[in-house]
């Protein structure tokens, strides 16, 4: 495909987007427009490099990339696993490191050990389902929450939670602990499968530049 086509990035709003822009800047890709915090614009363009950027809610990033509305996306591995979209994961960006864990009060360890039919609250019902049903072969009831998931065991909505643990301080402050670790997480770069074929050279060279930068860091 010709070089005058824009390559579009979907970035997960917040800390991951800032980290991604910092990293892109280190390899000479800047987007001045995006630095204006007062701007209400949704799409930012670097005309010279023929790049477009937009910010979206994390779970929408794989959706934009699967449908080709964005060629490239940057989002946490938690979201990629939960959304399970048809996208290629091409790079571990190394930041946003945390863990997906089963957590709860210490007494819940016994329930896990004996494969009891427990209630599991999570913002990530698909990850929770996959872990308990396919990996542990344990039948559980999954309750979807949208945030402050640690409340689940505290108000006896659930026995345990499946959630992200970064520093562990939210758990600690609420008398909860990690009971089982599901998987490590970090920010990943994903690519639309068609873009991968049509824009192979541009995407490959971008991925290589970032990889080299990360290796040197
Ligand atoms: C996330 C996660 C935990 C917390 C973990 O929540 O769901 O609650 O951070 O971080 P820690 O181990 O460093 O304490 P977030 O702040 O994104 O808000 P949410 O609870 O509304 O999802």
Features:
single chain; 217 residues; alpha/beta; D-Maltodextrin-Binding Protein, domain 2; 2 domains; binds 1-O-pyrophosphono-5-O-phosphono-alpha-D-ribofuranose
Write the layout of secondary structure elements.
Elements: E1 7-12, H1 15-26, E2 43-46, E3 51-56, H2 61-66, E4 72-76, H3 77-83, E5 88-92, E6 98-104, H4 108-113, E7 119-122, H5 125-135, E8 141-144, H6 151-154, E9 160-165, H7 169-173, E10 177-185, E11 187-191, H8 193-198, H9 200-216
Parallel strand pairs: 1-3, 1-4, 7-8, 7-9
Antiparallel strand pairs: 2-3, 4-11, 5-11, 6-9, 6-10
This protein binds 1-O-pyrophosphono-5-O-phosphono-alpha-D-ribofuranose.
Task: Describe this protein's structure.
The structure is a single chain. The protein has 217 residues and is an alpha/beta fold. The chain has 2 domains: 7-96 and 186-216, Periplasmic binding protein-like II (D-Maltodextrin-Binding Protein, domain 2, 3-Layer(aba) Sandwich); 98-184, Periplasmic binding protein-like II (D-Maltodextrin-Binding Protein, domain 2, 3-Layer(aba) Sandwich). The protein contains 9 helices and 11 strands. The chain has helices spanning 15-26, 61-66, 77-83, 108-113, 125-135, 151-154, 169-173, 193-198, 200-216, and strands at 7-12, 43-46, 51-56, 72-76, 88-92, 98-104, 119-122, 141-144, 160-165, 177-185, 187-191. The strands form 2 sheets. It has a 6-stranded mixed beta sheet. The chain has a 5-stranded mixed beta sheet with strand order 8-7-9-6-10. A hairpin with a 4-residue loop joins β2 and β3 (51-56). It is elongated and about 60 Å long. The structure holds 1-O-pyrophosphono-5-O-phosphono-alpha-D-ribofuranose. 1-O-pyrophosphono-5-O-phosphono-alpha-D-ribofuranose binds next to β9 and α7.
């Amino acid at each position: 495909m010709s070089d005058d086509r824009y390559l579009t990035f979907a970035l997960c709003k917040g800390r991951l987007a800032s980290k991604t822009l910092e990293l892109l800047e280190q390899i000479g890709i800047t987007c001045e427009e995006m630095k204006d915090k007062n701007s209400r614009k949704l799409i930012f363009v670097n005309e010279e490099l023929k790049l477009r950027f937009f910010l979206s809610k994390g779970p929408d990033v794989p959706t934009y990339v699967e449908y080709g509305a964005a060629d490239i996306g940057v989002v946490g591995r938690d979201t990629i696993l939960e959304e399970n979209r048809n996208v290629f994961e091409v790079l571990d960006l190394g930041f946003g490191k945390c863990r997906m864990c089963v957590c709860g009060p210490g007494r819940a360890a016994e329930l896990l050990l004996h494969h009891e039919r427990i209630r599991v609250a999570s913002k990530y019902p698909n990850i929770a389902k996959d872990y308990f049903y396919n990996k542990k072969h344990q039948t559980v009831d999954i309750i979807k929450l949208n945030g402050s998931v640690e409340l689940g065991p505290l108000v006896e909505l659930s026995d345990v939670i499946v959630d992200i643990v970064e520093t562990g301080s939210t758990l600690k402050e609420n008398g909860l602990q990690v009971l089982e670790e599901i998987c490590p997480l970090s920010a990943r770069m994903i690519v639309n499968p068609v873009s991968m074929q049509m824009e192979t050279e541009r995407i490959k060279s971008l991925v290589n530049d970032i990889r080299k930068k990360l290796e040197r860091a």
